[in-house]
């Protein structure tokens, strides 16, 4: 590891591992605060796309998080260190599991709508902040949604979007300028949007499609809307985009929740919701049916 990194942080146990990198717990020697450090071995990056994504990841994660934690739904990058072969990114340490493990712990039981609405609202808020800054995540899935849990169990989990290793910058953002499209088959088959599979350019609404798949998994107890035996089968199902709600899984799910999922997983990109529109949907506004939506009185 980088000598400067080891001078600044005490490196602890491994807490995660991916295709090219490993995540360790670490502690700031100056403040005693706990963090996580993701270390990517650039020598294992076999092609130009992987190398480009690895170089961009810490930059786009910082941009998505904004200055001064403006986008708290994104895991914040605190420092980046590089040596001859490795890139080490120090980031916030989340105290809970990822969303995938959180769902699995329920052993097939669906997440209640009020809890699911809180998760989807926080995820949409994080994505809206990314998109305003011109960043598209491109790999929104439960594994990349981390939870901060209240040890006392008195407050709901706080959702944090992580892993910008597949992200792209569309240009523009809050500073203005023309936006361009992203390209490339990037992401995870069950969660990827149809326009990504089809090829050509696409925009930030690919993240909304993926968040819709996450919402479907929450409310179904872990089932996914588009499946298949092989990645090619899954991609074919995604391209067809035939969204169904089997009664065995969705009989108890409200019409409002199904309406939002249809709008998030809409094949027609021009009609698909943006992250901001997700936040304004009645199901989100009502907290998954917990409270009535107060609508302004016509004047």
From TrEMBL:
<keyword id="KW-0808">Transferase</keyword>
<dbReference type="InterPro" id="IPR008271">
    <property type="entry name" value="Ser/Thr_kinase_AS"/>
</dbReference>
<keyword id="KW-0723">Serine/threonine-protein kinase</keyword>
<dbReference type="InterPro" id="IPR011009">
    <property type="entry name" value="Kinase-like_dom_sf"/>
</dbReference>
<protein>
    <recommendedName>
        <fullName>Protein kinase domain-containing protein</fullName>
    </recommendedName>
</protein>
<dbReference type="GO" id="GO:0005634">
    <property type="term" value="C:nucleus"/>
</dbReference>
<dbReference type="GO" id="GO:0005516">
    <property type="term" value="F:calmodulin binding"/>
</dbReference>
<comment type="similarity">
    <text>Belongs to the protein kinase superfamily.</text>
</comment>
<keyword id="KW-0067">ATP-binding</keyword>
<dbReference type="GO" id="GO:0005524">
    <property type="term" value="F:ATP binding"/>
</dbReference>
<feature type="binding site">
    <location>
        <position position="38"/>
    </location>
    <ligand>
        <name>ATP</name>
    </ligand>
</feature>
<feature type="domain" description="Protein kinase">
    <location>
        <begin position="9"/>
        <end position="284"/>
    </location>
</feature>
<keyword id="KW-0677">Repeat</keyword>
<keyword id="KW-0418">Kinase</keyword>
<dbReference type="GO" id="GO:0035556">
    <property type="term" value="P:intracellular signal transduction"/>
</dbReference>
<keyword id="KW-0547">Nucleotide-binding</keyword>
<dbReference type="GO" id="GO:0004683">
    <property type="term" value="F:calcium/calmodulin-dependent protein kinase activity"/>
</dbReference>
<dbReference type="GO" id="GO:0005737">
    <property type="term" value="C:cytoplasm"/>
</dbReference>
<dbReference type="InterPro" id="IPR000719">
    <property type="entry name" value="Prot_kinase_dom"/>
</dbReference>
<dbReference type="GO" id="GO:0009931">
    <property type="term" value="F:calcium-dependent protein serine/threonine kinase activity"/>
</dbReference>
<dbReference type="InterPro" id="IPR050205">
    <property type="entry name" value="CDPK_Ser/Thr_kinases"/>
</dbReference>
<dbReference type="InterPro" id="IPR017441">
    <property type="entry name" value="Protein_kinase_ATP_BS"/>
</dbReference>
<dbReference type="Pfam" id="PF00069">
    <property type="entry name" value="Pkinase"/>
</dbReference>
């Amino acid at each position: 590891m980088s000598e400067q990194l080891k001078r600044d942080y005490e490196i602890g146990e491994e807490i995660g591992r991916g295709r090219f990198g490993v995540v360790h717990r670490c502690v700031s020697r100056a403040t005693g605060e706990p963090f996580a450090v993701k270390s990517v071995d650039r020598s294992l990056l076999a092609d130009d796309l992987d190398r480009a994504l690895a170089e961009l990841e810490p930059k786009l994660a910082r941009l998505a998080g904004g200055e001064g934690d403006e986008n708290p739904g994104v895991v914040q990058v605190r420092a980046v260190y590089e040596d001859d072969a490795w890139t080490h990114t120090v980031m916030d340490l989340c105290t809970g599991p990822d969303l995938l493990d959180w769902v699995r712990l329920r052993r097939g039981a669906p997440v209640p709508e009020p809890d699911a609405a809180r998760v989807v609202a926080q995820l949409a808020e994080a994505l809206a902040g990314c998109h305003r800054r011109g960043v598209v995540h491109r790999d929104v899935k439960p594994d990349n949604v981390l939870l901060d849990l209240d040890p006392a169990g008195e407050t709901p989990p706080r959702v944090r979007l992580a892993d910008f290793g597949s992200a792209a910058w569309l240009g523009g953002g809050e500073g203005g300028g023309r936006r361009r499209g992203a390209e490339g088959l990037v992401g995870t088959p069950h969660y990827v949007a149809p326009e990504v599979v089809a090829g050509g350019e696409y925009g930030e609404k690919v993240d909304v499609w993926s968040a819709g798949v996450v919402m479907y998994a929450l409310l179904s107890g872990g089932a996914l809307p588009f499946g298949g035996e092989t990645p090619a089968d899954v991609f074919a199902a995604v391209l067809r985009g035939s969204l169904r709600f089997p009664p065995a899984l969705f009989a108890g799910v409200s019409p409002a929740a199904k309406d939002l999922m249809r709008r998030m997983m809409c094949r027609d990109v021009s009609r698909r919701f943006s992250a901001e529109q997700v936040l304004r949907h009645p199901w989100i506004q009502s907290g998954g049916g917990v409270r009535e939506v107060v609508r302004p009185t016509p004047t």
